Amino acid sequence: MGQVLGLMFALIGLGFLLRILRVFPKETAPLLNRFVLYVTFPCLVFRSLQGAALDRRLWSIPPLAYTAISALFLLAFLIGSKYFRLPPKRAVSFAMGAAFGNTAFLGYPFILALLGEEGLPAAIFYDQLGNFLSVYTLGVTFCVFGKTGKFSGKNVTEFLKLPPFNAFLLALLLNGLPLPPFLLGVINRLADATVPLTMVAIGLSLSPASLSKDAPLLGVSALLKLLLLPLVALGLVKLFPLPPLYAKVLVLQSATPTLVSSYVFASVYELDTELSSSIICATTLIALGSLPLWNLLL
Asked: What percent of the chain has pLDDT over 70?
């Protein structure tokens, strides 16, 4: 896990250095984010699910994950908009940072290292059918609200237009079927580019001033994401018992730091990218200590 987190910060640092040196124009980060959302991230989604073993017992994980994540998102949005009196763009960025976890890039290797191959399918189901669906239903609906300032019936179906969701449906349709090696090779190469490109884009948009300016927001988002969300997941496991392995995966995935792609959505929907990048950096740094602690407590 330390290597994964170290890689994340190295790539963010590279992007920040490129910003300081003004190697690229200001438009570079938004362009990178669009490329990720429309090209590489769909490949990552497809690769993660198309070859996953679909054990029937795994289907008990997504409803609990979706419930916990959605509840935290709505709570965070209310805290941001009512207590901190944030405008819609910042309130949505704050809520995404407090609710959506880095359950693929960090969650997969962490679960694999801790629980072995047996725990990985559960981690994938949490990510794809819990975290992923909450992002592309509730998250996108509020992103549209943050951009336009109003809700409408169209917001609810916005996620249907996004390539990652279509990649998700296609992966379910083709699950377990053999695909041409050449096609898989192309998909794998593009999928592998998702995290590096996103991390560099975060560094390009990172503002040191926002880290101090938004310190209260960063502190509250970290408490919600790294403490309250796993506690909610733990409570749901007590109410709706799961096999011990699945229960542990559910809580540990809930304790991961903020989803890197939340920054991509903040950029694409013209929300507060500085706040998003700051929350990602803050929660990821704190997770160096909090994730091992959650593992010891379970």
From this structure: 94
What is the dihedral sign for C-alpha 206, 211, 214, 215?
A: positive
Mean pLDDT confidence for 196-221: 81
Which alpha helices (H) appear in 100-193, and where do they start and end? Answer: 107-115, 120-125, 132-134, 140-148, 153-156, 163-173, 181-192
Ramachandran angles phi, psi of 162, nearest 5° = -85, 135
Total of domains in the chain? 1
CATH number reported for the structural domain that contains residue 99 in this entry: 1.20.1530.20
Which residue carries 């706040």 as its tokens?
A: 275
Mean pLDDT within 23-50: 86
Distances in whole angstroms, Cα of residue 68 to Cα of each of 72, 82, 106: 6, 21, 19
Handedness of CA 108, 109, 112, 113 (dihedral sign): negative
User: pTM of the predicted model, to two decimals?
Assistant: 0.80
Which of 237, 245, 230 is closest to 98 using CA atoms? Answer: 230
CB 175 within 8 Å of CB 110? no
For 55-60, what is the mean pLDDT?
85
Residue 235 token pair: 């409570």
Q: Which domain holds residue 205?
A: 2-297
d(CA 90, CA 80): 8
Evaluated on CA atoms 126, 128, 132, 133, the torsion sign reads negative
* CB-based contacts of 193-196 (< 8 A; 24+ apart in sequence): 193/40, 194/36, 194/40, 194/41, 194/43, 194/44, 195/8, 195/11, 195/105, 195/260, 196/11
